[in-house]
TrEMBL record:
Keywords: Oxidoreductase. This is NAD(P)-dependent dehydrogenase (Short-subunit alcohol dehydrogenase family). It comes from the Bacteria. The lineage of its organism: Bacteria, Bacillati, Actinomycetota, Actinomycetes, Pseudonocardiales. InterPro entries: NAD(P)-bd_dom_sf (IPR036291), SDR_fam (IPR002347). Pfam families: adh_short.
Length: 267
C-alpha cells in the first residue's frame, strides 16, 4: 500500500473523510479534495500520514480544470480515484440554484464536475487503475427535454437525476476503457448514513458511515474485484440500477451532452 496513491474527492467530512483516514492508516499516499481551504487543512490534520490537499469548488469547472492541472504538474500517478464529492438532496423547499456556468447546481456538482475531472485524469492513471463513484439507490430518469429542471423543480428529483447520471456515465466509460487501463464501477454505499447531508434531508439515519466506507473500500482494494468493470452495487452486493442506465442510446446521449457542457470532445 505504501506504493499506491488514492484520490478521494469530497474528503473534508462524512464518508470521504472516513475513507481518507482508513486509506492513510494503510500507509498509502492519500490525496484529498475539498472546496473550503480551512476545512481541507483540518481534514489533512485528521487524516495524517502521506496526505496532500487539492482545493476546488465543483460548482466552478475552471477550478476543476485547475485541480486536474495541478495533479498533473505534481507528477501524480493514480491507482484509485474515488469520486465522492457531491451535494445531498437538501430540504424540500430549497429553491433551484445554478453553478457558475449556469447549470442546475446538483447536476453540475454531482455529475458534470466529476465527469470532467475523471476524463481529465485518465492520462494520470496507473495501469489497471480503479475508478469508483459513490452514487445512490435513489435514481430518477433524465428528461432530456428539461435536463436542467427549469419546469417543476424539486430538490430530491434533482439529486436523484444527478445520481442516475453518475451511474449511466460509469457504464458508458467502462465500455470505452480497456479494463487493463482502468475499471469503472459505481455503488450505493449504504442507506441514510450518519452524515450531515442525510440529517439535513431526512432527519434520521439507517446506517453508519463505517458501513459505507467498508463497501466503498471493497471496490478500491479487493482482489476479488480486479478486472470487474461496468457494474453497480448496493453495498457489497451487485444490483440493478434504474432501467435508463442500461439504455445505450440514453447513455450515449448523456455522454455527448455532458461533454458539450464541460467543453470536452465527445470521443
Amino acid at each position: 500500500m505504501k506504493d499506491r496513491t488514492f484520490l478521494v474527492t469530497g474528503a473534508t467530512d462524512g464518508l470521504g473523510l472516513d475513507l481518507a483516514k482508513r486509506l492513510a492508516a494503510t500507509g498509502a499516499t492519500v490525496l484529498i479534495h475539498g472546496r473550503d481551504a480551512q476545512r481541507l487543512a483540518n481534514a489533512a490534520r485528521d487524516v495524517g500520514g502521506a496526505v496532500r490537499t487539492y482545493l476546488a469548488d465543483f460548482a466552478d469547472f475552471d477550478q476543476v480544470r485547475a485541480m486536474a492541472a495541478r495533479l498533473a504538474d505534481d507528477g501524480v500517478r493514480l491507482d484509485v480515484l474515488i469520486n465522492n464529492a457531491g451535494m445531498g438532496a437538501g430540504r424540500r423547499d430549497d429553491r433551484r440554484l445554478e453553478s457558475k456556468g449556469g447549470h442546475e447546481l446538483r447536476f453540475a456538482v454531482n455529475h458534470l464536475a466529476p465527469f470532467l475531472l475523471t476524463r481529465l485524469l485518465l492520462p494520470l492513471l496507473s495501469p489497471a487503475a480503479r475508478i469508483v463513484t459513490v452514487a445512490s439507490a435513489g435514481q430518477s430518469p433524465i428528461d432530456f427535454d428539461d435536463v436542467m429542471l427549469h419546469r417543476g423543480y424539486e430538490p430530491l428529483r434533482a439529486y436523484r437525476q444527478s445520481k442516475l447520471a453518475q451511474i449511466a456515465t460509469c457504464f458508458e466509460l467502462a465500455e470505452r476503457l480497456d479494463p487493463a487501463q482502468a475499471t469503472v464501477n459505481s455503488l450505493h454505499p449504504a442507506s441514510l448514513m450518519g452524515t450531515k447531508m442525510v440529517y439535513e434531508t431526512f432527519g434520521y439515519t439507517m446506517s453508519t458511515v463505517a458501513e459505507g466506507s467498508e463497501a466503498t473500500l471493497r471496490f478500491a482494494l479487493s482482489d476479488d474485484l480486479a478486472g470487474i468493470t461496468g457494474r453497480y452495487y448496493d453495498g457489497v452486493r451487485e444490483a440493478r440500477a434504474h432501467a435508463q442506465c442500461y439504455d445505450p442510446s440514453a447513455r450515449q446521449r448523456l455522454w455527448r451532452l455532458s461533454s458539450e457542457l464541460v467543453g470536452l470532445p465527445a470521443d
